[in-house]
Amino acid sequence: MAHLQKNNAKLVARVRRLRGQMEAVERALEGGAPCGEVLHLVASVRGAVNGLTLELMEDHIRFHVVDPDGEAPSAEGAAELIAALRTYMK
């Protein structure tokens, strides 16, 4: 997946932030944090995972489903699908 290589540092940074968020959930649970606090932490993790998933899906659509140059007629349909996914994943 050569296209991921140019975004590799950005993707790895997102994964590292996710790891930090999960560690915060673990610390909250071990420390007996209130339920509301733990739920907020988990919601943050969910949002971060959705963001990473969306970025990977968008790259996949752009580089494996439609013409990478974006000149094929299906490029418009791909853009619409990506916009719908962005709305759904929020």
UniProtKB/TrEMBL annotation:
<comment type="similarity">
    <text>Belongs to the FrmR/RcnR family.</text>
</comment>
<dbReference type="InterPro" id="IPR038390">
    <property type="entry name" value="Metal_Tscrpt_repr_sf"/>
</dbReference>
<dbReference type="GO" id="GO:0045892">
    <property type="term" value="P:negative regulation of DNA-templated transcription"/>
</dbReference>
<keyword id="KW-0175">Coiled coil</keyword>
<protein>
    <submittedName>
        <fullName>Uncharacterized protein</fullName>
    </submittedName>
</protein>
<dbReference type="GO" id="GO:0003677">
    <property type="term" value="F:DNA binding"/>
</dbReference>
<dbReference type="Pfam" id="PF02583">
    <property type="entry name" value="Trns_repr_metal"/>
</dbReference>
<feature type="coiled-coil region">
    <location>
        <begin position="1"/>
        <end position="28"/>
    </location>
</feature>
<dbReference type="InterPro" id="IPR003735">
    <property type="entry name" value="Metal_Tscrpt_repr"/>
</dbReference>
<dbReference type="GO" id="GO:0046872">
    <property type="term" value="F:metal ion binding"/>
</dbReference>
